[in-house]
Amino acid sequence: MSASSVAAGTTAELSVTPTHNLASFSIAHETPADSSAREALLDRVMGEGRKRKSSEKLRRKRVPAYGTALVARDDNGAMIGTVRLWHISAGKKTGGEDVPALLLGPLAVEDAYAGRGVGSGLMRQAIRNAQALGHKAILLVGDPDYYSRFGFVAAKTSALAMPGPVERHRFLALELEENYLDGASGVLTATGKLITERQALAV
Length: 203
Prior knowledge:
Structural class: alpha+beta
Radius of gyration: 16 Å
């Protein structure tokens, strides 16, 4: 899926905070020209198995959430990291209403830059953008030891389920609005726009 599928409009109003980390890199909004490099990076870092994960069922043939598809680049402009967030419904409330939220992933960083602040930079920028756009919660499946530093916890997903197998301790959520997920239960469902044929050809 190309970044042209992110949404109509511009991300210019979502400023990217300058990064000052152990590695010299910059973070920017993903562009259509990044599609091939992004897929290649994901294949290198995560392997083909990434396409069989439960999270993929919520991303397949969908458009990422506006303003949340980000890339990290080295000083030469080469992509060294990527993250995207996706529109989902985090189950339903007791009254039957959907619970709009975001699903984060995949987050991937080139092995040569592991442990040098690239992943943290992408995460913090993605969370800032989600907050600025008025989203209330972000969910993901990942290493709790890593994601807890950003405020993600498993306790908020105890009544929720992925559309496939998942290790419960790796199913995490971050509330951007306090107690937003209270009373939400059920299986996560995809709510993002479907990719158009034209967008699919841009991959």
